């Protein structure tokens, strides 16, 4: 700060003498400067001092010297090259190992081992398997006898085919009653009172009750019972 004040004072003194100040030729202030009749404003003196100080710092550049010193201190030291390592010695060849001398055994006659008696093993018979169940053959189906085609006429009992007569149940007609009106006609067969279209036995139907007798129907054959 004292340097700046001294520079301001020297500048004022040089201005009064009519020449520009020089930083390198600034003499030390030995005597107080002459007082002028009219002093400039203080802000002009301050601005002039700051500009001179900036010019001096720009010419001197104190920060550049410090940066060079820092860079020189940070420069890595060159490491001294290490001496080359000696090459490894080649491995020594292993000495060949001589095989140990094997003792020679005296040849002895081979001893024959006693032979075991031969045992003959007969194969055992296989165990019988489980008996297969006997499957009885189904009875043969007897074909039904072929009957002739029924005729349109009323047959007597003995005129029926033998197979048909043998398959008929017992039919006993006790009596019958004829009337003009069909619903009033009736017959007594096997002890039962039946009308036309009634069933006497399985498959045997009263087809008609006429004035001369009763007509039955069995498997398409019309006949009179005996």
TrEMBL record:
Domain of life: Bacteria
Transmembrane spans: none
GO CC annotation: type II protein secretion system complex
Record field: compositional bias (Low complexity): 25-34, 91-100
Domain Type II secretion system protein GspB C-terminal: start-end pairs: 168-224
Pfam families reported for this sequence: T2SSB
Biased composition (Pro residues): 81-90
InterPro entries recorded: GspB_C
Chain positions covered by the region annotation Disordered: 11-34, 77-100, 115-134
Name this polypeptide is given: General secretion pathway protein B
């Amino acid at each position: 700060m004292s340097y700046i004040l001294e520079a301001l004072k020297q500048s004022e003194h040089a201005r009064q003498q009519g020449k520009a100040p020089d930083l390198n030729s600034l003499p030390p202030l030995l005597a107080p400067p002459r007082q002028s009749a009219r002093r400039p404003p203080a802000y002009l003196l301050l601005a002039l001092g700051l500009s001179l100080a900036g010019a001096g710092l720009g010419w001197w550049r104190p920060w550049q010297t410090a940066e060079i010193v820092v860079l020189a201190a940070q420069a890595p030291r060159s490491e001294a090259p290490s001496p080359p390592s000696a090459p490894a010695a080649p491995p020594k060849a292993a000495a060949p190992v001589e095989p140990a001398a094997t003792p020679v055994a005296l040849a002895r006659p081979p001893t024959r081992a006693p032979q075991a008696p031969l045992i003959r093993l007969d194969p055992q018979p296989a165990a019988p398997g489980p008996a297969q169940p006997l499957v009885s053959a189904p009875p043969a189906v007897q074909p039904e006898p072929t009957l002739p085609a029924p005729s349109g006429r009323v047959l007597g009992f003995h005129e029926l085919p033998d197979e048909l007569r043998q398959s008929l149940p017992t039919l006993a007609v006790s009596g019958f009653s004829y009337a003009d009106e069909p619903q009033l006609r009736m017959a007594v067969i096997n002890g039962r009172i039946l009308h036309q279209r009634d069933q006497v036995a399985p498959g045997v139907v009263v087809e008609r009750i006429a004035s001369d007798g009763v007509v039955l129907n069995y498997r398409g054959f019309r006949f009179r019972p005996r």
